[in-house]
Every structure is written in structure tokens, then in C-alpha cells.
UniProtKB/TrEMBL annotation:
Gene3D superfamilies in alphabetical order: Glycosidases
Organism: Knipowitschia caucasica (Caucasian dwarf goby)
Major localization class: Golgi
Compartments it resides in: Golgi apparatus membrane
Pfam family, one: Glyco_hydro_99
Region of interest (Disordered), ranges: 56-84
Family: Belongs to the glycosyl hydrolase 99 family.
Record-given protein name: Mannosidase endo-alpha like
UniProt KW Signal keyword: no
């Protein structure tokens, strides 16, 4: 009898070991093996703790100019728009887009492609690295080289190509880096006057446009109040202007606020809380405002400030608390508990040593798309409300999914997407976005 019990225990132990080994094997599947490890069952409620729930269960596209806008959404299915070579766009996927590039044929000179080599803030370290600036068109401030060459963002042909490429990726919303009229980043020139052309080009391709308000000199809660009014008054009726449909049927503009932590939560609350001195809440300019989480404490600041959600922007896993994939589950739980949107940002890789030669430790190699798939899988694992892609064309930081080509000069060999073609990361994005849409339908249902 004792011998029989021993045999039974051994058999049970071996069976348990087999099951454990099988489960561990499934956990080690690479991202390319599938995105089916999620289960449906995410509930969306219009009110949580008496607070307006701005999380959307559907985002129908804004009606074209001159046509009536749709009413409250009746379906929980992600909206689709037939366009582009593959047929559909997904408006829960937003992609960061830069308009700061210039070339002689359109702008009289190269802009941004001739980026300076940024010195390290420590003079001792800075002395070990080269200084100066790039000399386009063969020497540009990027480790990759665009298929379109060192282009101008003002070139209509470039805009058309960009919209076509974004359509190929299936991302439905461009998030345009935005500075107020007359202002620009330290290495560029004002581009606000280009927004109408971007909106028109996006409209021709059924894409939508929203705004990434940059940390310009002098930005504060009052100036952002004025910025929001300016953008909505000027562009709010355009057919390509993005509106976010909340679960209670409201349709609202959405703004990403870059480096929001530079302004105190107390100041932001004057703009974003219902009782603020110049609050936009319950006004014609009320919108969905998304703050940037870099450090862990920022999630509490974003909540206290009155933001509606948070995004992570940076494409370098481990660079910050917010950009570290293993923190996304906890951030999502915090957002869910406090009725906030969580919008993780994913990117194909990161390399900015062409403009910050001392920053090699933050480089994230693309590994032929494996790094991107890992980030995409990490985002999908937390069942996000939306996803942002960093980026379509931030060439300086090597996060672009825009088409790139091999190029070799006397002094430099550019990186490329080989052994894949120039569209590899556009196509990879579409594959994942379609899977995300299928999964999200199940979560909502």
C-alpha cells in the first residue's frame, strides 16, 4: 500500500512538473508568436465615483466639413474608415508627427536636417565628443536616411507621401508637434502656418489630426488656455480635426501636453479643475487633456492637476519610469482606479547619437522589428484605452517608422531596415494595430 502511495505521489509530481513546464514555455513566446494572451471582459462605465468618465468606448471620425456630426455612439466596436492601400484606419492609434524639416527648394535652406551636435551638460564629458553641426543633404542629423531625402515639411508631395504612408500603417490620428504662432524649438523655425496644409492632406486620406503642445518658452496654464482656444477656434470645424468620443456620448478635442511636469499641479488645476481661475471645464473649449508621465511621482501630479489621462512618449524602454514597459501594468491600474486614460507610447527603437553623441547608453536597437514587437506586446498586455506611436518621423532620435533607405557616403554609413524593405515598420504597425483592434472589441464586449 505504501509503495502504491509512493507511485501515486511520483506520478502526481511528474504531472505537476509537466504542467508547470508547459506554462513557462508559453510565457516565453516571442511577441511575433501572437497577441492572444489576453482575456475579454473590460467594463466601461460613464461615471466613476461621480466623476465624468472620459474613457471612450468608440471614436467615430469627425464628419467632413459641411456635414452633420454624428450623435452619441451606439456601438462599442472600434470605428473603421475605408482608406489607403489596405482598407482600414484605426482611430485609437495615434502617431507623433513632426513638421519642422526644411530644404532649400521650399525654405531657402535646410532646417533640422543640419541639427547641431548637442554638447553634454558636464564640460568634462562634453570635451570628449565632437562639436559642430551636420551638413545636408549627405550628412544629416539622423542615423537613418529617409527615402524622400532631406525633405521639406512644406512640400505638398512630401505631405501626400506621408499621409499615404501613415494610411499604410493603419494609425488613424496624427499628433502634430505644435508651437504657437511665431515660436519654434531651439533648432527650428515657426511652423504653425503649416497646420492647414497638414489638416487638408490628412482629410484627403481620411486621417485625423490632434495636437502635441510643446514646452515652448513661457508656457504656463494661462498660455495653454489661450492656445487651446486658438486651436479650436481656428481648426475645430475642419473635417480632419480629431474629436474623442467619451463613453457618455460627448465628442471632445484631445490635447497631449509635452513635459507637463514643468508646470506645477497647482497651476495646471487653474486650467483643468472645474473651479480653476481660468478653467476650461464645462465651457465650449472643454477638452481631454493628457499629461506626460516621466517619473513615478508624476502620476499623482497629473491626477492632482486635473488632467484626464497620461502618456509615456519616450521609445527607449528603461529610459524613464513611464517609458519602462514593466511599469505599465501598475500605471494602468492607477489610472483605472482614478478614472484616467492610460496611453502607452511604443516605438521601433531609439538612437540619437547623431545629435547627442554621448547618449549611446540609451540606444535601443531595432533587431529587425523585434524591439518594436516587444513594446507593442507590452502595451497590449495592459489593455490600453489608446496607444501612441513614437514616431512617424522623429529622425533625430531614430524612432521613425517612415520609409528609410540604405545610404553610404565617404564619411558615413547610415542604418537601414534591411533585410526588410523600406516599408517594414509601416507594415509591422498595421499587423499589430489590426490585432489590437480585434482584442479591444473583445475587452469592451
Amino acid at each position: 500500500m505504501a509503495r502504491l502511495r509512493r507511485k501515486s505521489c511520483i506520478a502526481l509530481f511528474l504531472f505537476t512538473l509537466f504542467i508547470f513546464g508547459s506554462l513557462m514555455g508559453l510565457r516565453t513566446l516571442k511577441p511575433a508568436d501572437g497577441f492572444m494572451d489576453l482575456t475579454p471582459g473590460l467594463d466601461f462605465l460613464p461615471l466613476i465615483g461621480g466623476k465624468l468618465d472620459r474613457r471612450s468606448v468608440a471614436r467615430p471620425p469627425t464628419a467632413p466639413a459641411g456635414q452633420p456630426r454624428p450623435g452619441a455612439p451606439k456601438s462599442t466596436k472600434p470605428p473603421l474608415s475605408n482608406t489607403g492601400p489596405e482598407g482600414t484606419l484605426f482611430y485609437d492609434v495615434h502617431i507623433f508627427y513632426s513638421t519642422w524639416y526644411g530644404a532649400p527648394q521650399m525654405d531657402g535652406k535646410y532646417i533640422h536636417w543640419d541639427h547641431i551636435l548637442v554638447p553634454h551638460w558636464d564640460p568634462k564629458i562634453a570635451s570628449s565628443y565632437p562639436r559642430g553641426r551636420h551638413m545636408p543633404p549627405d550628412d544629416i542629423g539622423s542615423s537613418f536616411y529617409p527615402e524622400l531625402g532631406a525633405y521639406s515639411s512644406r512640400d505638398p508631395a512630401v505631405l501626400e507621401s506621408h499621409m499615404e504612408q501613415i494610411g499604410t500603417s493603419a494609425a488613424g490620428v496624427l499628433v502634430v508637434s505644435w508651437y504657437p504662432p511665431g515660436l519654434a524649438d531651439d533648432n527650428g523655425e515657426p511652423t504653425e502656418d503649416l497646420v492647414p496644409a497638414v489638416l487638408d492632406a490628412a482629410y484627403r486620406h481620411n486621417l485625423k489630426v490632434t495636437f502635441h503642445i510643446q514646452a515652448y518658452h513661457g508656457r504656463n496654464d494661462q498660455s495653454v488656455h489661450d492656445n487651446v482656444k486658438y486651436i479650436i477656434d481656428r481648426y475645430g470645424d475642419h473635417g480632419a480635426f480629431y474629436k474623442f468620443a467619451t463613453s457618455n456620448g460627448k465628442s471632445m478635442p484631445l490635447f497631449y501636453i509635452y513635459d507637463s511636469y514643468l508646470t506645477s499641479p497647482e497651476s495646471w488645476s487653474e486650467l483643468l479643475s472645474p473651479t480653476g481661475a481660468h478653467s476650461l471645464r464645462s465651457s465650449a473649449y472643454d477638452s481631454v487633456f493628457i499629461g506626460l508621465i516621466v517619473e513615478e511621482r508624476h502620476k499623482h501630479d497629473i491626477l492632482a492637476a486635473g488632467f484626464d489621462g497620461m502618456y509615456t512618449y519616450f521609445a527607449s524602454n528603461g529610459f524613464s519610469f513611464g517609458s519602462s514597459h514593466h511599469n505599465w501594468k501598475g500605471i494602468k491600474e492607477f489610472c483605472d482606479a482614478n478614472n484616467l486614460l492610460f496611453i502607452p507610447s511604443v516605438g521601433p527603437g531609439y538612437i540619437d547619437t547623431s545629435i547627442r553623441p554621448w547618449n549611446n547608453h540609451n540606444t535601443r536597437n531595432r533587431v529587425n522589428g523585434r524591439y518594436y514587437e516587444t513594446a507593442l506586446q507590452a502595451a497590449l498586455n495592459v489593455r490600453p484605452d489608446m496607444v501612441t506611436i513614437t514616431s512617424f518621423n522623429e529622425w533625430h532620435e531614430g524612432t521613425q517608422i517612415e520609409r528609410a533607405v540604405p545610404k553610404k557616403t565617404v564619411n558615413k554609413v547610415y542604418m537601414d531596415y534591411q533585410p526588410h524593405g523600406p516599408e517594414h515598420f509601416l507594415e509591422l504597425t498595421r499587423t499589430w494595430v489590426e490585432q489590437y483592434s480585434k482584442e479591444k472589441e473583445q475587452w469592451i464586449m
